[in-house]
Design a protein that fits this description.
Number of strands: 11
Largest sheet: 4 strands, mixed
Distance between the termini: 43 Å
Oligomer: single chain
Radius of gyration: 16 Å
CATH topology: Rieske Iron-sulfur Protein
Shape: globular
CATH superfamily: Rieske [2Fe-2S] iron-sulphur domain
Structural class: mainly beta
């Protein structure tokens, strides 16, 4: 049986979960099986907003959580930090930059997500298509 292709992006509009399913200051993983392959990502909640990342440590190329959906999120005075279970790297939840551990200044790959009416969806990366019309790029 051939290995499943790993994807690093998703199309917009996939319904992931109700926002209420993720505790404030916590993270939840999502595995999406698409025609082109499998995508693994996680979402960190901070209040009513969410930030998504591809579930892949830039240091070692492994998922951040040792067990499915067991992300370690730490609240500090400057915000939330997500820990890589394997190597102890700490990533700022707001922008994915590593602030401690073996990959300082590297960053997690962003995964565009958004909250609409209390539900988390995958989002479009970059400006919406109508923006290109305004700039005369279409």
């Amino acid at each position: 049986m051939p290995a499943e292709t790993r994807l690093y992006a998703t199309p917009p509009g996939f319904k992931l979960a109700p926002l209420a399913d993720i505790a404030d200051g916590a993270a939840r993983g999502f595995r999406l099986r698409l025609k082109a392959g499998r995508f693994d990502g996680f979402v960190v909640r901070s209040g009513d907003s969410v930030t998504g990342y591809v579930d892949l440590c830039p240091h070692a190329g492994v998922p951040l959580a040792a067990q499915p959906d067991s992300y370690q999120v730490h609240a500090v005075s400057t915000g939330l930090l997500v820990a890589c279970t394997w190597h102890g790297a700490l990533f700022r939840a707001e922008d994915g930059v590593c602030v401690a551990g073996p990959c300082v200044k590297q960053r997690l790959q962003s995964w565009p997500v958004e909250v609409r009416k209390g539900t988390i969806f995958t989002a479009r990366s970059g400006p919406p298509p109508w923006w290109r019309l305004l700039l005369g790029l279409a």
